[in-house]
């Protein structure tokens, strides 16, 4: 109410949900008409370390080594991270019908994959369907392929993730 943002939120969302829910990406994505390309790790290291598992959320420090290195997570912790990944993948299903949208969602424990050549377009870049990020984005942007939507399997299935710099 203070910022009067109700007038810019999508009317379909406002008709069915509390206005505070209409701010979340799960709802916002439904109303975006401009073609977009979504690039993200399903196990984004920054989100895991700073949003999902800040140090204060685990006073007994049971998540400390896991959040710093996904390879240190036990099976219970991996299940929790997989559930978060699966929720994101499920929320992204709304773009399956948007033919002019694209995405590259890998299982690498990393953040900001577009900043470094090693993760964008090098011989050791992460791959989905034998394509690196640059190839998938290029195929989408230049219209070389319709429905460019690549989604990786659950961690630790992708051996090409090992080539990334530390998160």
Topology:
Layout: H1 11-16, H2 25-31, E1 37-41, H3 45-52, H4 64-68, H5 75-92, E2 102-106, H6 117-120, E3 127-128, E4 131-132, H7 133-141, E5 149-151
Parallel strand pairs: 1-2, 2-5
Antiparallel strand pairs: 3-4
Main location: secreted
EC number: 3.1.1.-
GO biological process, one term: cell wall organization
Structure write-up:
It is built from 7 helices and 5 strands, in the order ααβαααβαββαβ. By secondary structure, it is of the alpha/beta class. The chain folds into 2 domains: 1-33, no CATH class; 35-151, no CATH class. The protein has a 3-stranded parallel beta sheet, covered by helices on one side. Strands 3-4 form a two-stranded antiparallel sheet. The longest helix is centred in the middle third of the chain and has 18 residues, at 75-92. The termini are far apart. InterPro entries: PAE/NOTUM. One of its GO terms (biological process) is cell wall organization. It comes from Aegilops tauschii subsp. strangulata.
Q: What string gives the helices and strands in order?
A: HHEHHHEHEEHE
Main sheet summary: 3 strands, parallel
Q: What Rg is obtained from the alpha carbons, in whole angstroms?
A: 18 Å
Distinct helical segment count: 7
Indicate the low-confidence ranges by residue numbers.
none
On the 0 to 100 scale, the average pLDDT is: 88
CA-based shape: flat
Looking at the chains present, what oligomeric state does this protein adopt? Answer: single chain
> How many DSSP E strands?
5
Order of strands across the widest beta sheet?
1-2-5
């Amino acid at each position: 109410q203070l910022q009067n943002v109700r007038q810019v939120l999508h009317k379909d969302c406002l008709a069915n949900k509390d206005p505070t829910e209409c701010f979340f990406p799960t709802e916002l994505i439904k109303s975006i008409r401009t073609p977009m390309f979504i690039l993200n790790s399903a196990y984004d290291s920054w989100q895991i370390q700073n949003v999902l598992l800040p140090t204060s959320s685990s006073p007994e420090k049971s998540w400390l080594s896991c959040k710093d290195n996904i390879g240190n997570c036990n099976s219970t912790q991996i299940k929790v991270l997989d559930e978060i990944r699966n929720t994101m993948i499920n929320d992204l299903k709304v773009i399956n019908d948007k033919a002019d949208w694209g995405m590259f969602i890998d299982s690498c424990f990393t953040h900001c994959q577009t900043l470094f050549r090693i993760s964008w377009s090098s011989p050791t870049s992460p791959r989905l369907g034998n394509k690196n990020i640059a190839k998938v984005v290029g195929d989408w942007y230049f219209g070389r392929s319709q429905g460019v939507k690549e989604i990786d399997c659950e961690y630790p299935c992708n051996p090409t993730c090992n080539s990334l710099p530390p998160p």
